[in-house]
Amino acid sequence: MRISIWKQVLLAILVALVGNVFGMSKPADSISNDTTIFLNHEIVVTADRQKVSSFGGVQAVSVLSKEKLLDLSPMSMPEALMSMPGVWMQKTNHGGGSPFIRGLTGYQTLLLVDGIRFNNSTFRSGPNQYVNTIDPLMIDRIEVVRGQGSVQYGSDAIGGVVHMLSHMPRFSREHISLNGYLYGKYIGRDMEKTGRLNLDIGMKNTAISVGYTSKNLGDIVGGGSIGKQTPTGYDEYSMDLKLLQRTSGGHLFTAAYQRHVQKDVPLYHKIEDGGYSTYHFDPQQRELAYIKWEFFTKKKWLKEIRVIQSFQNSIEGRIKQKTDESIIENERDEVKTLGTVVEIISRPGKFWRISSGAEYYHDKVNSTAFERTEGLPGINEMRGLYPDNSTSGNFALYTLHLFEKEKFNFSVGGRFNTIRLNIKDELFGQTTIDPKAFVGNAGITYKINSKYHIKGSVNSGFRAPNINDVSSFGVADFRYEVPNYNLNPERSINYEVGLKSKLDGISFNIYFYQNDLRDLITNVRSDHDRQSTIDGIQVYKRINSGKAVLRGIESDIEFLINADIRVQNNLTYTHGQNISKDEPIRRIPPLYGSLGVFWDFSPKLKLVGRWSYAGKQDRLSEGDIDDGRIADGGTPAWNTIDMSLHYTRRHFRVQAGVKNLFDEAYRTHGSGIDGMGRSAWTSVILNL
């Protein structure tokens, strides 16, 4: 099915404008009590580290609520993020993926879970699979800040920030309350079988939540003539616990634990075209435990005080065996992270709000490797991908200020960040690296009237070199990486202007941006022990040689056609150019977007249709051309249509639908696996 993207966009805007002129857009209470506009009506916390209106704030923010997550019933966190405006997903493996925000991914976008940094010092430069270790069924809300985040959250947020906020149990005013649900989902041809149990206990001052998810993903069956892609399936489970305790003084204590484990996860493109008979992540594991104290006072400089103490443990094991060879390689990287965050919210004046604080994160990296010969006893121990027992310390101070003055909202902030890497490498020597950075931002909102706001901002960002950058020694993608300790932080300056509108029955956003990047850490051909290849693979090392510019446009519109039908449409275009190499930035996404229609037949029954589309991407870098995951000449354009019915009663919710209705054969640009073909699915939620 081929439909002009530009015609679709123009049609959506035309329908919205016609509806507004001829009376479709009426006051919300006269349209429907059930069908409402969400865009620009949300309260967000990520952009300024305190609650602000998404309409009044300066930043470009996308929000995915719990209700939208229930409608999507996503297979994984990457599949949930794929539906958000301004987010492009490269698919690493079945269910996995790496979010691109404004053309950047990997360690150039920052992931947060409940306000805690998820990125650690071994995150890789290109697409990675880590966000797939966060269970979407335990998440209440996702916020994506596009184009900034270094001032608010530190290193890595050059492209933006993805913040995933987990489920919050509720207190009960009178009697003890017990709530919960059972969830089950199935996708045809055994591509997904998921079950979850969630229980909430609410008391006057105590609330508890317990959740457990088990998932079996079978091999993906691609569209058209692609057929089954083997091996791609694997098993996983996750659990989450949360305790809220309210004190007599109104203060709040939170304790939480999350654990996610995946077993025997195939990296399909390595097996299909990369010369391996086995290439699996086993295990892929994430743990997060934290305690949070929240204090509330009447003092204007200390309105709210939050202290978060966290511990994270990330384990990535890799099992590799080349085709027609008997040697099996085992690698294991474990990163233990201790984190402390102190936040202070101040209200020194009626129109002045401040968020200030300090952060410290400490990583300890354990990296080991060994190889053995199939059928023979004994092992040969080797250096791991990273130097064993290396550490990283990350300390920062920040302050963010919001001012409101008549027709203007102002935002200004600054952050000082220092990072210290202690590399303990028996093979290449020991060294200490301590990069520092100071970044700032400034933004303004001009309120033309209550319905239209103009936005403008400039912010600087940085990404400090991490342990992966300076010390990686081994195979990555199509190259063999060798260490380089002489690296400096990557820098960026992002400029953007936007227009937001919030009318009765229609809302829209449009942003234009430019992100200037310098001192980019790039891979260049090199040698090791005077050899340009290792095991036949070209040697590369990282250097600060890159200068690039990203420009783009993002649009997002939501409107009511009538009392029962709501339409969402978004479109994103990014043009990325590596100035140093005079070529496109690697894996730059094509023009892409989606059109969703939500039709409420009744308060209980809803029909949802979604058209997702991407243009052809033939702007390829040298690395793209060498990458076997990208077809010769680039990635073809594609369109998919999904349809689903949703029936809700008090005690249960049933959803059923068809993905990729016309069985399109497609692959998202830069991905190592093809998309799912036509497949029926159903999910059931039973409220306890």
UniProtKB/TrEMBL annotation:
Occurrences of domain TonB-dependent receptor plug (ranges): 59-161
Coiled coil: none
Main location: membrane
Gene3D superfamilies named among the record's database cross-references: TonB-dependent receptor, beta-barrel domain, TonB-dependent receptor, plug domain
Location of the TonB-dependent receptor-like beta-barrel domain: 262-661
Topology versus the membrane: Multi-pass membrane protein
Top-level taxonomic group: Bacteria
Keywords: Cell outer membrane, Membrane, Receptor, Signal, TonB box, Transmembrane, Transmembrane beta strand, Transport
Family the entry assigns: Belongs to the TonB-dependent receptor family.
Protein name: TonB-dependent receptor
Native species: Agaribacillus aureus
Lineage: Bacteria, Pseudomonadati, Bacteroidota, Cytophagia, Cytophagales
